[in-house]
Here is the input.
Amino acid sequence: MTRSLRGAVLAVAGLLLVAGVVALAALWYDAAHDDEFLPGVTVGHVAAGGRPVAAVMRALDAELPPVGETALRIVAGDRDATVTLAELGLRSDAEATLARARTEAERMGLPRRIWHRLLDKPVARSYDVLFQVDRDAVRHHVADLAAQVALAPVDARIDTSSGMVAVVPAAEGRALDVTATTARVFELAGRVANGAAAPAAVEAPITALAPKITGFTDVILVRTAENKLYHYDHGTLVKTYSVATGSSRYPTPKGSFSVVLKRRNPVWVNPDPGGWGKSLPARIGPGPRNPLGTRAMNLDVSGIRIHGTANVASLGHSASHGCIRMAMPDVEELFDQVDQGTPVAIIEGPPPPAPTPVAGAPAGPAAPAPTPGAAVPVVGDPNSPVDLEAG
Here is the structure.
């Protein structure tokens, strides 16, 4: 090897050594400043150039409390709630933004990073930090307000506590639309947190809830103690009928019922062919001997009907097998005026009042005592064809 060639090799080796040292120094320098932002970088309102990531993060976190103190008012009818952005789970995307800034610095390449850092050349990069609230936290606060606003609808009902019928009117309910209100609060809170809107009241939409029962076209009241049936039309008493109700052995049930079936010229079906009805036919078709008369209205309680009877002597007495008997013209009239589904209230009610004596009038003769062995008029006989029921 000639001296000139040896010198060239040594020169190249020296250059490579210097380059290697420079490269190693550059890598060391870049690694030593890897946790620092490049000069000129701004994140949010924080000048991040030359500062460590943790220090910038602390500066950004310091901005949260003042923003979180901002309050919004949610108005729902006559109720409202005031909540701060902090209570709505305010947070920022600072961590993701810092990560994005560091990723872009990595993409610049080592030479450019070294050049910017060594010469303190700003890169003029700015990154916005955005605030947002937590949707689940918003929904939680809206749900609390919704619970205060909620009002269940009240159905119209029949009150017989006075002994007569009073229709208690229905009332609308209300419910706050949680989904729509959550969306409104979430959107406004995000804009307020980022300075794009001023705090304002959020009107929460409220939905009216209609009751299922708004009134009653017809109501039937039966008072067994006086053997009367009262027909009400839209809450107003329109007619009173004399009826027969159940005997002490077969009492008419008390409670709230309804007409579930209406029958013209009904067929009587023997309700107890193996018991008290074993000597009776299985069926009795329409006609004068039919125990149900010309009309029958079945109630939603086993074996109880409002029906006609040919035994008009039983009307005004507790004489039936539990059904409510009516004179034929009366049951036909009522039958045409009420629909299936009509509510029927059956109560005991007060007994008919005793006659009030007229002041100064002589007392009338006392009713004669029954003669021993004399026949007692029968107003209801369960074994008489016209007194059989439950058909």
About this structure: Residues 364-380 have pLDDT under 50 and may be disordered. The helical segments are 3-32, 53-61, 64-68, 94-107, 110-118, 135-149, 178-193, 328-337. DSSP finds eight helices and 23 strands in the chain.
